[in-house]
């Protein structure tokens, strides 16, 4: 009977959840060789989707995008139990981009860094992003365009720690 | 009969399972607010989609003790409702005066038959002991042992009260059989 199968599946999932409850909490582990979480450095991780290509070499992250819209590109993790400040600096563009409007780096819905304005880079300053203890922040690329066929570009960003 | 029993058990088991999980999650967030505990929510640390991570084992133990208490109390309240129905609103031995009053007030739906009561009670009692085991797992892992003992005593008492109702039911059946 399909309704009973559904009920059994639902109950099995719920029971799995119930028996997994002891793993719902954890304690932040202290790193190996006595490295305390207090001094653990920010972690930068490349994230990608079908419209982006993200390459990370050390603290340098190169992002290529081929479509308009919002795309996750970088995740910054603070593994320490103290607040940390990430430093984002855009390197001058090395290749041509074709954009009809703007490209912003965003956190949630908030634009934090304008990367391009009609194929030019308006701002090459440093942006500082504060991360709370153990916080993880995903930076998204918001590519606005009135012609999705001509929205592509590449930029390189250096992400460090103050 | 067996298929009907299994179907009834399935129906009755979903609510307490949801209640346990909800109790633990709500308890954790209450613990964080009440004790002002710093925490972060991180994905991929366990079978569950996310894990609540604390800086120190002491903070984790405080949050777990508090949330386990909330989880256990929620299940105990659920079982107490079933137990109340078993003792006072059980069709086989409800006092005639109360039965008449409920019918007059058009509340006869509150009266439950043995089939419903015993399936409900079996499921809630099982989940009560499951939460007791979960609390003991925490106690073995460095959590509150006194909470483990309190939950054990609570579950033991609840089981005893439930068996008293079964005794009344069996006695009532014996009287009916004797009359025939």
What does this entry look like structurally?
The complex is a heterodimer of chains A (162) and B (180). In chain A, 11% of the residues lie in helices and 44% in strands. With 162 residues, chain A is mainly β. The longest helix of chain A has 18 residues, at 2-19. The longest helix of chain B is centred in the C-terminal third of the chain and has 35 residues, at 145-179. A two-stranded antiparallel sheet of chain B has the order 1-2. Chain B has helices spanning 2-34, 57-88, 96-104, 114-140, 145-179, and strands at residues 39-43, 50-54. In chain B, α1 packs across α2 and α2 (57-88) packs parallel to α5 (145-179). In chain B, β1 (39-43) and β2 form a beta hairpin. With 180 residues, chain B is mainly α. Chain B is elongated, with a radius of gyration of 20 Å. The two termini of chain B are 25 Å apart. Helix content of chain B is 76%, strand content 6%. Classes of the chains: A mainly beta (162), B mainly alpha (180). The A-B interface holds A 4, 7-8, 10-11, 14-28, 37, 81, 132-136 and B 7, 10-11, 13-14, 17-18, 20-21, 24-25, 28, 38-40, 42, 45-48, 51-57, 59-60, 63-64, 71, 127, 130, 134, 137-138, 141. β1 of chain A pairs parallel with β2 of chain B, so a sheet runs across the interface.
Q: Summary?
A:
Chain A is mainly beta. Chain A has one helix spanning 2-19; strands spanning 25-27, 43-46, 52-57, 60-65, 69-77, 84-90, 102-107, 110-117, 126-131, 136-143, 153-161.
């Amino acid at each position: 009977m399909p309704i009973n199968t559904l009920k059994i599946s639902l109950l099995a999932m719920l029971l799995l959840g119930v028996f997994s409850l002891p793993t719902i909490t954890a304690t932040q582990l202290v790193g190996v060789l006595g490295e305390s979480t207090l001094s653990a450095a920010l972690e930068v991780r490349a994230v990608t989707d079908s419209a982006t290509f993200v390459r990370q070499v050390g603290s340098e992250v190169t992002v290529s995008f081929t479509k308009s819209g919002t795309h996750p590109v970088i995740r910054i993790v603070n593994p320490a139990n103290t607040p940390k400040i990430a430093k984002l600096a855009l390197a001058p563009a090395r290749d041509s981009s074709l954009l009809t409007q703007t490209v912003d780096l965003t956190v949630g819905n908030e634009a934090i860094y304008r990367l391009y304005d009609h194929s030019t880079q308006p701002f090459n300053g440093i942006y500082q992003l504060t991360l709370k203890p153990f916080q993880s922040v995903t930076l998204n690329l918001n590519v606005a365009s009135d012609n999705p066929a001509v929205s592509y570009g590449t930029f390189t960003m250096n992400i460090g720690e103050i | 009969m067996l298929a009907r029993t299994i179907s009834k058990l399935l129906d009755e088991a979903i609510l307490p399972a949801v209640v346990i999980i909800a109790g633990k999650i709500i308890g954790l967030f209450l613990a964080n607010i009440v004790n002002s505990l710093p925490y972060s929510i991180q994905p991929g640390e366990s079978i569950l989609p996310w894990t609540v991570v604390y800086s120190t084992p002491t903070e984790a133990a405080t949050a777990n003790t508090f949330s386990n208490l909330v989880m256990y109390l929620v299940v105990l309240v659920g079982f107490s409702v079933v137990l109340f129905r078993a003792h006072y609103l059980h069709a086989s031995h409800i006092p005639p005066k109360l039965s008449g009053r409920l019918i007059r007030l058009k509340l006869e739906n509150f009266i439950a038959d043995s089939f419903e009561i015993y399936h409900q009670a079996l499921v809630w009692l099982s989940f009560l002991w499951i939460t007791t085991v979960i609390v003991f797992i925490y106690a073995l892992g460095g959590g509150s042992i006194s909470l483990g003992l309190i939950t054990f005593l609570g579950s033991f008492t609840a089981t005893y009260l439930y068996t008293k109702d079964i005794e009344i039911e069996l006695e009532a059946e014996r009287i009916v059989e004797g009359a025939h």
